[in-house]
């Protein structure tokens, strides 16, 4: 807020209230109250229009600012690049585009090609279009169906919502695109809600439910399976043992492309470069966004194997054979310039190693809270991506009402700690507190976050 007077801030608040349409929020309260304005960030902390400091445990509210706020070197990289060459349409190359693609592919054995765009939703749309075009080019118009998983989220466009496993997010936006088929979730904590789920080898069984859907639909009609490596907004659901190995086998058996949505998990969030690398999976398509440049510039990528790329490259006389797609702002050079410096920071500061260490501390802290507060039914996570599911009864696992979960979030906010929670996504099951702090978090930061949750649970459920 340097250089801004109280009158300046008042003007900003008034302008925001009068003209900005915020994301994911009801605006009726702004008729009598102020919208929150975040005016500054440094490291793990942000300050609002009143100068109140907050510890950010959700990396920008939507799991994005992996390397923290105020990174001058990223700002300088973007400035220098856009002064030299800010934009050219993606039919040609740029220096940062080529160099970041090279560096990114080096972290993804088996993948070879990077298609640039500017949001996670758009990256997933590109993948869906590739699958559909392959169906027409190679399978005579068959294998157009795309499978997606209950509770997973892939974006806010109509096509990505067609592949959205969160019914409250989808409500009122249909009808959706055809040939998107849902498969069951793999949430072991709630396996009691799935008919036939076994006590042992649940992961293999859950993956087998995908095979049942494929057989029901017809393997010759299914082109791709799109999954998050760890379900994010659907409740921070870590896959059970044996799940991913069986998924890989199923895709190979039925010639189905495996599309992994790394929009949240990518760029170190789980302690490895990409979430799927925790499980030995070999995908055909990987999409990513948020942490690619830590929010310093807009960028997303749809990355493919050479096998997928080669399907669009031939000498046939048909002029329709290539991937006829463009993303205007995929041609901006600020994104890959920021991404290059973002990746250098991740490497030079060993933030993946820090993520593993601090993630283990967060899980330990949350498990200690679960021993103290019986409303915590389950703690789960991978790296600095953790969840604590709240229930009214541990024996029945009855989900806590969303209003009570949001009361915990609000109490933490009053303490100066910003945490997240599933919110208006899954009917009757928006009951998971979500934690995804920047990967620079220290032990003191983690303790401050979980201490705030401790205090909030004590007050809300007193």
UniProtKB/TrEMBL annotation:
Protein name in UniProt: Taurine--pyruvate aminotransferase
Keyword Iron assigned: no
CDD domains to which the protein is assigned, alphabetical: OAT_like
InterPro entries attached to this UniProt entry: Aminotrans_3, Aminotrans_3_PPA_site, PyrdxlP-dep_Trfase, PyrdxlP-dep_Trfase_major, PyrdxlP-dep_Trfase_small
PROSITE patterns reported for this sequence: AA_TRANSFER_CLASS_3 (PS00600)
SUPFAM superfamilies listed in its UniProt record: PLP-dependent transferases (SSF53383)
Requisite cofactors: pyridoxal 5'-phosphate
């Amino acid at each position: 807020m340097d250089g801004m007077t109280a009158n300046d801030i008042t003007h900003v608040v008034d302008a925001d209230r009068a003209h900005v349409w915020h994301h994911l929020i009801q605006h009726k309260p702004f008729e009598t109250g102020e919208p929150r304005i975040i005016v500054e960030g440094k490291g793990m902390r942000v300050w609002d229009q009143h100068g109140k400091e907050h510890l950010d445990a959700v990396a920008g509210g939507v799991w994005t600012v992996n390397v923290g706020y105020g990174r001058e070197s990223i700002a300088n990289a973007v400035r220098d690049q856009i002064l030299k060459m800010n934009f050219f349409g993606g039919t040609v190359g740029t220096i940062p585009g080529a160099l970041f693609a090279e560096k990114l592919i080096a972290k993804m054995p088996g993948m070879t090609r990077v298609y640039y765009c500017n949001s996670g939703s758009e990256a997933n749309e590109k993948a869906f279009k590739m699958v559909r075009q392959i169906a027409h080019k190679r399978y005579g118009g068959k294998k157009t169906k795309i499978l997606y998983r209950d509770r997973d989220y892939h974006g806010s466009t109509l096509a990505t919502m067609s592949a959205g496993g969160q019914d409250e997010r989808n409500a009122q936006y249909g009808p959706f695109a055809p040939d998107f088929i849902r498969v069951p979730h793999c949430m072991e904590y709630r396996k009691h809600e799935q008919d036939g789920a076994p006590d042992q080898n649940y992961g293999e069984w859950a993956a087998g439910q995908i095979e049942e859907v494929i057989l029901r639909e017809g393997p010759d009609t299914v082109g791709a399976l799109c999954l998050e490596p760890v379900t994010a907004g659907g409740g921070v659901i870590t896959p059970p043992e044996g799940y991913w190995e069986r998924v890989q086998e199923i895709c190979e058996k039925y010639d189905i492309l495996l599309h992994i949505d790394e929009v949240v998990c990518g760029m170190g969030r789980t302690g490895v470069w990409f979430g799927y690398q925790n499980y030995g999976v070999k995908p055909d398509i990987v999409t990513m966004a948020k942490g690619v440049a830590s929010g310093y510039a807009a960028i997303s990528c749809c990355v493919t194997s050479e096998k997928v790329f080669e399907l669009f490259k031939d000498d046939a006389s048909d002029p329709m054979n290539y991937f006829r797609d463009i993303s205007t702002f995929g041609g901006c050079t600020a994104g890959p310039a920021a991404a290059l410096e973002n990746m250098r920071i991740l490497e030079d500061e060993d933030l993946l190693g820090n993520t593993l260490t601090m993630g283990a501390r967060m899980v330990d802290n949350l498990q200690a809270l679960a021993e103290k507060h019986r409303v915590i039914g389950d703690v789960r996570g991978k790296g600095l991506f953790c969840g604590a599911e709240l229930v009214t009864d541990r024996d029945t696992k009855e989900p806590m009402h969303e209003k009570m979960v949001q009361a915990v979030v609000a109490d933490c906010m009053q303490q100066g700690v910003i945490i997240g929670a599933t919110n208006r996504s899954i009917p009757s099951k928006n009951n998971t507190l979500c934690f995804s702090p920047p990967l620079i978090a220290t032990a003191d930061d983690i303790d401050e976050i979980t201490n705030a949750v401790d205090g909030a649970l004590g007050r809300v459920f007193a």
